[in-house]
UniProtKB/TrEMBL annotation:
Alphabetized UniProt keyword annotations: Membrane, Transmembrane, Transmembrane helix
Top-level lineage group: Bacteria
Chain ranges passing through the membrane: 52-70, 76-96
Annotated protein name in UniProt: Permease
Transmembrane helix found in the keyword field: yes
Keyword Membrane: yes
Length: 104
C-alpha cells in the first residue's frame, strides 16, 4: 500500500504534485500544501523560505548547478562548488522523497 504524504502544517494528505510545496525548514525537508505554505509559513516569519520544488526551486537548482562549475575554471572559492552541489542534491532529494510519489 502506498503511504500517504501528509502536509506538515494541516496534517491532511497531499494528493497532487501541483499542491505540493517542499520547504527546508528547521533542518528538515518538509512537505506542505501550496495554500498552507502561502498562508502559514509566510505569516510565521519564515519570509525568504523558498520552496524547493516548483518553478523557483528548479530555477535556483539550475543556477546553483552552473555556479558550482565556476571554481573549477576560475579563481572563485571552491565553497561555491560545495554550496551549489548541496542545493542541487537537496532539489533531487525533494523529488525522490516527495514529488515522485504524487501524480500530476
Ligand atoms: Zn496543508
Amino acid at each position: 500500500m502506498k503511504k500517504e504524504l501528509n502536509c506538515d502544517s494541516c496534517l491532511m494528505p497531499i494528493k497532487q504534485r501541483d499542491e505540493l510545496r517542499t520547504v527546508w525548514a528547521f533542518f528538515k525537508l518538509r512537505p506542505y500544501h501550496r495554500s498552507c505554505y502561502e498562508n502559514s509559513l509566510r505569516g510565521a516569519g519564515l519570509v525568504g523560505t523558498q520552496p524547493i520544488n516548483g518553478f523557483s526551486g528548479n530555477f535556483t537548482a539550475l543556477v546553483a548547478f552552473i555556479l558550482a562549475w565556476l571554481p573549477l575554471f576560475t579563481n572563485i572559492s571552491p565553497v561555491l562548488t560545495i554550496v551549489g552541489t548541496l542545493i542541487v542534491l537537496l532539489r533531487l532529494y525533494s523529488f525522490i522523497r516527495f514529488e515522485k510519489r504524487l501524480p500530476h
